[in-house]
Write a structure and sequence with these properties.
Two copies of one chain form a homodimer.
Chain A: E1 2-8, E2 11-18, E3 21-24, H1 30-34, H2 39-48, E4 62-64, E5 73-77, H3 81-86, E6 96-100, E7 105-106, E8 112-115, E9 120-121, E10 124-130, H4 139-144, E11 146-153, E12 156-157, H5 158-161, E13 177-185, E14 196-201, E15 204-210, H6 218-226, E16 236-238, E17 260-265, E18 269-278
Parallel strand pairs in A: 5-16, 7-13, 8-18
Antiparallel strand pairs in A: 1-2, 1-4, 1-13, 2-3, 5-6, 9-12, 10-11, 10-16, 11-13, 14-15, 14-17, 17-18
Family (chains A, B): Belongs to the FAH family.
Keywords (chains A, B): Hydrolase, Metal-binding
GO molecular function, one term (chains A, B): hydrolase activity
């Protein structure tokens, strides 16, 4: 199943993607839906029904960040084996983790605001969304707790990221990590078997990786994280980006005002984000 | 004014510390109180009254983490000039920042749980609590948005912190950062003029610093952070720790099962935490 959070008129709703459009579900967004203990039953009932007259046509809705209210957004860096090996590094023993906030996330077709002075870079990623609570979990338990997968672009301010040893401040600008366009339930996709992760800048492909080369699988990441902090329904884990970021180019290439960034995982969908740079720097 | 979140019987309440004990305020905790637009008026009314018969005696309450529900907990590393200079380093141009979660926080007299295998270390810190929303703020605006100050100990798992370049995973174990015992309103303390920050381990003083040597003052940290992410009432900023942590000793000294850690800022109060280590490691 494909799920979405959509705006229709002045309100938002969680929705099931059906042939005729978007079938509303009884929650304002997928964060709220996934926090209901009976969310799987709700989906089963909704999907077994036929497309009723209340499905919203695609033309009447706007796709939003599917999970706007995670209590935690945790990201893994340096996770694509092919990219790590091509850089001449050894595969890591532990995942490199850092945090973002719910405020860092934005809609799948949102403009990305920043200052012209900043070195904005792209990072196409597979994102995992939790469907149940997880604590000290095995990999099997973690796999069973995955509600589904979506697409993210961990757009990073490289100059801020490199101001200190800790990446956090370059990764946490409000409304700079688009997420969506839909959440595909875990039964329909297997990142271990392989999902392509593709980033295109103004029509030119800049990243293409495959999740089968992840050093730390989604389930392993969740299991590892759950040993130190509880994960809850609607929480979001970003699994890292493959090679091809602008920082790694010679010379480095950063995003410019008006650039169009497409982030695609076939089987899930495509984020379409335009970069919008202000002239005056604030810091 | 000194404010607290206390447990009394089966429920919790925000409270004003008065001569007779703890005067309940109309909110379940200080996170909830600070999110009320009229929280300053509520405090003014409560403090102008005399100690009524409804003040709870100290013997009837338990002090809790004053702000249990921050949307953001952001920490600054490497911020005490005397410690940085004694280590032979240059003063930093930018603050080193990383994030914790609300789940990382715990009560001012809580036991600190961990596995025996971990290298637990202490970091006594002044914590700042926001009283209003802050975005792209000047230092003056940031200073005006501070609700008050409290004490924190950013207890860190050094082995996990050093597994990768990013400190996050060693800093985000659930219920390992005690906060409290009270929140002292900003009009009563001036960290720029100087507050002592003291850590005592089993009766032996291991850290003593003064906030007048902070490279980045509380207001400057808030102003800087607010350029990239919005801060909200109840959010918590940890301002860094002075010299004297166990990792810096020769040989390094880490916390043992049963150790008693006192973290004190005169004028605010003292955290009293016992370390409780489990024998079996989970990771």
């Amino acid at each position: 199943m494909k799920l979405a959070t959509v705006r229709h008129g002045g309100r938002t709703t969680a929705a099931l993607v059906v042939a005729g459009g978007y079938q509303p579900l009884p929650a304002r967004n997928l964060s709220e839906l996934l926090s209901l203990p009976q969310w799987k039953e709700i989906l089963k009932d909704a999907s077994s029904g036929h497309c009723g007259p209340d499905a919203l046509p695609a033309s009447a809705i706007e796709l939003l960040n599917p999970v706007p209210n995670p209590t935690k957004v945790i990201c893994c860096g340096l996770n694509y084996a092919d990219h790590i090996l091509e850089m001449g590094r050894e595969l890591p023993e532990y995942p490199t983790l850092f945090a973002k906030f719910a405020d860092t996330l934005t809609d799948p077709e949102a403009q990305i605001p920043a200052d012209e002075s900043m070195d904005l870079d792209w990072e196409a990623e597979l994102a995992v969304v939790l469907g149940s609570t997880l604590q000290d979990a095995t990999e099997d338990e973690a796999a069973a707790a995955i509600a589904g997968y979506t697409v993210a672009n961990d757009i990073s301010m490289r100059d801020w990221q490199r101001r200190t040893l800790q990446w956090f401040q370059g990764k946490s600008f409000d409304r700079t990590t688009p997420l969506g366009p839909v959440l595909v339930t875990a039964d329909e996709l297997d990142p271990v078997a392989g999902l392509e992760v593709i980033c295109t800048l103004n029509g030119e492909e800049v990243q293409r990786g495959n999740t089968k080369t992840l050093v730390f699988s989604a389930a392993r990441l969740l299991s590892y994280i759950s040993t130190f902090t509880i994960l809850r329904p609607g929480d979001v884990i970003l699994t890292g980006t493959p090679g091809g970021v602008g920082m790694g180019m010679v010379p480095p290439r950063f995003l410019q005002d008006g650039d169009e960034l497409l982030t695609e995982i076939p089987g899930i969908g495509t984020l379409k984000n335009r970069i919008s740079l202000r002239v005056a720097a604030t810091a």
